[in-house]
Design goal:
With about 80 residues, this protein is an all-alpha fold. About 55% of the residues lie in helices and about 0% in strands. It contains four helices and no strands. It has helices spanning about 5-15, 40-50, 60, 65-80. Helix 1 (about 5-15) crosses helix 2 and helix 1 (about 5-15) crosses helix 4. The termini are far apart.
Length: about 80
C-alpha cells in the first residue's frame, strides 16, 4: 500500500504529464519518465505551489526530481501547517 504523500505526488505528476497514475511508480524520477523534461518540471512546480497555496523555496525545488522527493516535500509541507 502506497503512502498518502506518494499517491499525491503521483497524482500531481500524472496530471501534469498526461499519464495514468498507474503508469508512474514510487521509484520513478525525472530520468525515468519520458515527458518529465525541464519545461514540464517547471509546470509541475507551479502546479504544486498552486495546490499548496505557497511558494516552494529554491533549495526545495532541487529535491523535487523524483516521486519520493515530491512526496517528502508534501509530507514536510503538511507537517508545517
Amino acid at each position: 500500500m502506497e503512502d498518502l504523500y506518494v499517491t499525491q505526488a503521483i497524482e500531481h505528476i500524472s496530471g501534469i504529464l498526461g499519464y495514468a497514475s498507474e503508469e508512474i511508480s514510487a521509484e520513478d524520477t525525472i530520468e525515468t519518465i519520458d515527458k518529465w523534461d525541464s519545461l514540464n518540471h517547471m509546470r509541475l512546480i507551479l502546479h504544486i505551489e498552486e495546490k499548496l497555496g505557497s511558494m516552494i523555496d529554491t533549495e526545495d525545488t532541487l529535491l523535487l526530481f523524483s516521486v519520493s522527493g515530491i512526496a517528502a516535500y508534501l509530507r514536510k509541507s503538511d507537517n508545517n501547517t
